[in-house]
Amino acid sequence: MNYSMVKSLILKDWYFHRTGILLSLAGGAVSLAVVAFGGKPGFTIGLILLVTIMIMIGAMTVMGNTLGERENQTLAFSMSLPISYLEYTTSKIVGNLLIFVPFWLVIVAGCLGLIVAAPEIHGLFAFTVIMAVEILVSTCLMIAVALVTESKGWTISAMVTGNLALNVVGYLVAHIPGIAKGMWGTAIQWSPAASISLATEFALIALLLGGTFFIQSRKRDFI
Q1: For the chain, which residues make up each domain, given as ranges?
Q2: What pLDDT shows up at residue 83?
Q3: pTM listed for this prediction
Q4: Cα 28 to Cα 217: distance, rounded to the nearest angstrom
């Protein structure tokens, strides 16, 4: 593994998206403020903004980092470097995650901090964690589809599928008895059902990224 070249490609992606990352962080901070100080209407509006911003930063990085090189015809240059396609794939997956995950962690930590600080919504703790990880699953789906298909159309379809799945998963999780019964309580609860849901999501992430590495390793034509 040519770690130096992988690192250089990751830093390149960070550099080209630095403005979007900073703007997203600012937008996330504003949304958290709306949730914290906007009352009941602000709580709903702020949560919608937070979810929208997280989805946008995920889509922006995937479209720019992964599909942008083929559209801008710079993929041939990247592959002319002393790097294998497995290393290139590694740089894209790790690069996208290193852009998205720190931002995602800050937003999720802020949301959980607000929940801990407000006893009346303590019951939403487990639901919030599960739904936050679901957004990470959706981002990993976009990364996987973009790398494997190298198609904007398929990647947009993956983004739409992830957004729809977010609503479906939210509905299903909210109706799991072990989670639903404590959602509107004033105590932070973590049930076995929440653990199973979270483990399933992380297993899906591992499957998506592992499958991407496997499929990419079998490609013979990359340009």
Answers
A1: 3-217
A2: 66
A3: 0.85
A4: 37
